[in-house]
Amino acid sequence: MSRTTSNLTEKYDVLVVGGGNAALCAAIAARQSGASVLVVEAAPEFYRGGNTRHTRNMRCAHDSATETLSGPYSEDEFWDDLLLVTNGNTNEQLARYMIAQSKEMLTWIAEQGVRFQPSLGGTLSLGRTNSFFLGGGRAMLNALYRTATRLGVAVTYDAEVVALDIDGDRFRSASIDHAGQRYTVEALALVAACGGFESNLEWLRESWGAAADNFLIRGTRYNRGTVLKMLLSQGVEPIGDPTQCHAVAIDARAPKFDGGIITRLDCVPFGIVVNKHAQRFYDEGEDVWPKRYAIWGRLVAAQPDQIAYIIFDAPKLELFMPSLFPAIAAESIGELATKLTLDPAVLVSTVDKFNAAVQDGKFDPQVLDDCKTVGLSPPKSHWAQRINQPPYYAYPVRPGITFTYLGTRVNRDARMLMRDGGASDNMFAAGEIMAGNVLGSGYAAGIGMTIGSVFGRIAGQEAAKRART
Amino acid sequence: MTVCNSCRYCEGLCAVFPAMEMRRSFGDGDLDYLANLCHSCGACYVDCQFSPPHEFNVNVPKVLAEVRGDSYATYAWPQVLAPLFRRNGLALSFMCVFCIAVSFGWLAVGPDASAIFAIHTGPGAFYELMPHNTMAVMFGAAFAFSIFAITMSARNFWRAIGPAPANAGVVPSVWQAMQDAGRLRYLDGGGAGCEVTSAPDRRRLFHHMTFYGFLLCFAATSVGTLYHYLLAREAPYPWYDLPVVLGALGGLGLLVGPVGLLTQRKARDPAVRAETHRGLDTAFLVMLFLTSATGFAVLLLRATPALGVTLVIHLGVVMALFLTLPYGKFVHGIYRYLALVRHAQERAAHKH
Lengths: 469, 352
Fold this sequence. Notes:
The structure holds 2 protein chains of 2 kinds.
Chain A: H1 3-6, E1 12-17, H2 21-32, E2 37-40, E3 57-59, H3 75-86, H4 92-111, E4 116-117, E5 130-133, H5 137-151, E6 154-156, E7 160-167, E8 170-178, E9 181-192, H6 201-208, E10 216-217, H7 226-233, E11 238-239, E12 245-251, E13 272-275, H8 289-292, H9 296-301, E14 308-313, E15 328-330, H10 333-339, H11 344-357, E16 392-404, E17 407-408, E18 415-417, E19 423-429, H12 447-468
Parallel strand pairs in A: 1-2, 1-9, 2-6, 9-19, 10-16
Antiparallel strand pairs in A: 3-5, 4-5, 7-8, 8-9, 11-17, 12-16, 13-14, 14-16, 15-16, 18-19
Helix pairs in contact in A: 2-5, 2-12, 3-4, 4-12, 10-11
Chain B: H1 2-7, H2 16-21, H3 28-37, H4 43-46, H5 60-75, H6 88-109, H7 125-129, H8 132-160, H9 170-183, H10 203-231, H11 242-267, H12 278-301, H13 307-324, H14 331-351
Helix pairs in contact in B: 3-5, 3-14, 6-12, 6-13, 8-13, 8-14, 9-14, 10-11, 11-12, 12-13
């Protein structure tokens, strides 16, 4: 029997389900509080850590500039940003508590061996607010796993929780499948830190119908939401819109799962976007890209066959970060349409109409400039320039799902709240599975990691405290 | 590389990724430049979310190691000798045996073949076996050839990696590169060390021992030469004298360093190694080790009848080392240093 298998035959103070940032912060914090801890990660070792593998920074409040942060980011400013992106769809008390706790996280995370660096090229706008992990999310995970293992946290990969034994508001044990066998692991407290359900296509179909078949999942294929479903069906109170997910438009040629950051496309403001009938359907220049990129997943999802094409011309090719795949190029709009299997006559007419509506202005990608269309529906409000310099380029895009909002409701101890009104005796949640408590909709770069680290540490400490009493 | 350029998470780990971002296109010369800039710490492999078994199959250290290995042959001068890189171990052993044989042959046909088994002591003892001038001419010639061949190869490389940025100063860049190379700044994976080893990471330590050991031995030889010509003091020198002290210290480095580097290599994750060029490392490390080991043998046995044989073997090994410097792993230091200079120039130009 291998060591990781024998892990499953013991009893623990704290069982952590999941293997990402939140799970590891919980495991480390619980172990540092004196608890025995087992981490069960459903993914194989390489894919450990869920979507943490694809992250690169976290957003923490701080009073002054540091070696890697270019200036202060106050708690109030953080709160204002959160209010803005969620449209008020947040729990103020919980959110402000998290923001206050985030200040300590910069030191605490670094103490666990995670290294930071100044913001990456192409992300200067985040240099003041967000701390970037040196080497990215997987480097961060490697550090957390090293620390957890050194502290004596037991970790088993390829271990999927298939059932939870919950008595009222109390967790008793979990049934875990590993290496072809089923094990029952008892623990005094449970930390659920195993993500949302964005990789569960059947579940997505419940809300989106057949359109979900054309979605691409940007991150891990292991966030199937099985534990979330068990908890919600056994008395834990849900939070967040069950039909909503964070979706951006990504390169349609990306793999079904795990394409990560390199499938993103930031070129919508530099061209026009057409659907499979070669028609435009939304204002490509409505606002600056960071404020608009998260709506395009949903926009494309509403188009026939969930596909769209960004069309632009030669001068725009080098204005944005390239995707993994090269742009499709042609010497004429008609030829480009043929390559995209669009109707050439219709695309030519769409481009001609757009070009005719473009007003002369001073093009400036950095600000809301005065380049716009007149008499066109839908309009293009900024950065509208005629598409008339070959070669012409296109990127096909599809909705890329990042995460889902449905989760378990928690209090400030990261303790799950029950549908009958009380708090759970020994069940805690951290990370994406409870992100909906503070992030009811929208997204701000690096905030998922903040939620994971802050509530992960709290969940670990509280679970250890519960196990000792 | 397309994956890296659209991801950029590794930007802070070393010089390779920022250098990549400063380039729009990647010709062969650019790739050779990046490959030699890479110190093969492996951090970008363990940190990459797209490394195997991910379907994107990104393995930068391995690809660059293969390119780097090939680049040595690409720029070698003269090109006729480039194939030596392919069967490097064989070439070096052959050269070694050949040089030792020539040394023995020299003595055998020389005026006093029996001198080899006699006891020689006092100043000039070595030269009773082989006259100093003969030694100086032979080694001087070998050394001069190597320097010339390496210079020509380095020139090929420098030209291939493209023109330097116009507004970058040479002196500050050369100085910056000396600091980067001297400290092996980029062998630490951005601070975490070389992570892909099953043993504790000591690569930097062992490389320092090897590199500075080599420099100390070189210094010992230089001091000896000055003694000989300026002060007319002839070898062998007493154990406390500068050439012996420098040589012994350097020699220790050359014993421990190469052995350490070989064991560290065994402990590395095979996934990041270029299997095609393993012989290069081994051959060079073994040569350095032998140079030092035979040098110590001379030091220990110099008052005994074994001196002749040991000295001849030592000189043969050193001769072989000199002659093969341009066609072995030694050149990695030259190309990597030039790549660091170019990187310092590009960074300076980028800041303006």
